[in-house]
Write a structure and sequence with these properties.
The protein has about 425 residues and is an alpha+beta fold. Among the domains are: about 1-120, Beta-Lactamase (2-Layer Sandwich); about 275-410, Histidine kinase-like ATPase, C-terminal domain (Heat Shock Protein 90), CATH 3.30.565.10. About 60% of the residues lie in helices and about 15% in strands. The chain has helices at about 1-55, 65-70, 120-170, 185-230, 235-270, 275-295, 315-330, 360, 380-390, and strands spanning about 75-80, 85-90, 100-105, 110-115, 275, 300, 310, 335-340, 345-350, 395-400, 405-410. A hairpin with a 2-residue loop joins strand 1 and strand 2. The protein is rod-shaped.
């Protein structure tokens, strides 16, 4: 995009410079030539008047030295004819082939012809041509600087908007406060923020619905299985047989439900990839260390080598970024990011030494719009959505001090296929 803008502006500047420079140069050359011709005509007239005066005062004699003084400062040859006599006076060097000519009548009869060397004229024309060319080059150079600045000013915001759209597609629905001072781009950024909020609400409602439906189905299936198990122990063989068959079908239904939920989680995590937490977590922490240090606080990272988790790098970075931002805004003391290996997950904990989450908010801290510190209450809901999109979980482990825990699917080195997140059996 930057190259296109740069090329378009440079082309416009070059065309404008040529459209103005060529006529300007041509006009300057013609003007100088016209002025030189007028100057030669005036000089010829002055020479003719001088010759007439000399013929009158000197009884028909010509004072060539006096005429040379009139013509001094240049190179010229004066040829004049009077009373049938032809006289030539040369001032300076030979005139060469490139000359300017002019003639003037003499009062005593005859004509005076002035031939002047055109070299000074050509030199002046060349200088003017060079000057115009320099002006064109200066215009193009100035246009290049302006084009570069303008292209960067337009391309950088557009790249940022494209980045924002990509993050939105990756599941990062957080609003971006950046604006660019360009009305159209600001409108796009506002539209992306609005779309992100709408998508976040839609995804959250969908996940809540799936969670509620799966919870209700599992609860009902569990109750049904208990009744069927009781009926399977009945004394009547027919009732016991029918109950056993129904119990088998309910168990199959339970298994199918768990597989569907696991498949849905795997579909959401299709972009997840094996990530070395020993490399990724320090890189994420590096973006926040200076901000915390400016607040007089420290950030520590503890992660064992070789711990691989399956996640989308952008989602993991944004989710942990939300937790670190919360620690920066609402916590105190040292912030700690630690990781360890669980039974079937990689466990990442983010904690600080602050007052923690009030008890009345602990159960609702991940709900959209809930906040205890005057913020929008969007960050934690989106962080949980980002982690959940990769097949993981985000929980508030302890409220005082606040410790948030990410449970991420583990990955093996060289693993290239998405690992389904196995749904835990039983009601949610």
């Amino acid at each position: 995009m930057r190259r296109r803008i740069l090329r378009a502006i440079l082309l416009a500047v070059a065309v404008t410079a040529c459209a103005l420079g060529i006529p300007l140069g041509y006009s300057a050359i013609i003007f100088v030539q016209t002025s030189a011709g007028a100057s030669v005509t005036d000089t010829a007239q002055v020479a003719a008047n001088t010759v007439d005066d000399q013929l009158t005062t000197n009884n028909g004699r010509i004072d060539q030295e006096g005429l040379k003084r009139v013509l001094q400062g240049g190179q010229a040859m004066v040829t004049f004819t009077y009373l049938g006599r032809k006289t030539t006076v040369v001032v300076g060097d030979s005139q060469g082939e490139d000359v300017l000519k002019s003639s003037a009548p003499l009062v005593h009869g005859g004509t005076l012809e002035l031939i002047q060397n055109a070299r000074p004229l050509r030199q002046l024309q060349a200088e003017l041509t060079v000057l115009v060319a320099l002006l064109v080059v200066l215009s193009v150079g100035t246009g290049t600087v302006v084009a570069t600045v303008t292209a960067r000013r337009l391309a950088e915001p557009m790249r940022h908007v494209a980045d924002r759209a990509a993050r939105l597609g990756a599941g990062d629905f957080r609003p971006d406060p950046n604006r660019y001072g360009v009305e159209e781009l600001d409108m796009v950024a506002h539209a992306l923020d609005t779309s992100g909020s709408a998508l976040a609400d839609l995804v959250q409602r969908e996940r809540d619905l799936v969670g509620d439906v799966s919870h209700q189905l599992r609860s009902r299936l569990t109750a049904l299985q208990l009744r069927l198990e009781t009926m399977a122990g009945a004394s009547s063989p027919e009732i016991a047989e029918d109950a056993a068959a129904a119990l088998e079908q309910s168990e199959r239904l339970t298994k199918v439900l768990e597989e569907l939920l696991a498949a849905a989680g795997a579909a959401r995590a299709v972009q997840a990839e094996p990530i070395d937490l020993a490399t990724e977590l320090p890189a994420i922490a590096a973006d926040w260390r200076e901000l915390l240090r400016a607040d007089g606080r420290a950030l520590r990272v503890r992660v064992p080598d070789g711990l691989l988790a399956r996640a989308t790098p952008g989602r993991l970075r944004e989710a942990i970024g939300v937790l670190l931002d919360n620690s920066l805004r609402h916590g105190t003391g040292t912030v700690t990011i630690s990781a360890r290996r669980g039974e079937a997950t990689a466990v990442v904990e983010v904690s600080d030494g602050g007052p923690g989450v009030p008890e009345e908010l602990a159960a609702h801290v991940f709900e959209r719009g809930v906040s205890g510190g005057g913020s929008t209450g969007v960050g934690l809901a989106l962080a949980r959505a980002l982690v959940d999109a990769d097949g993981g979980r985000l929980e508030l482990s302890t409220s005082r001090p606040a410790t948030f825990t990410l449970f991420l699917p583990v990955a093996r080195a060289g693993d290239l296929v998405a690992t389904p997140w196995r749904a835990e059996p039983g009601p949610r």
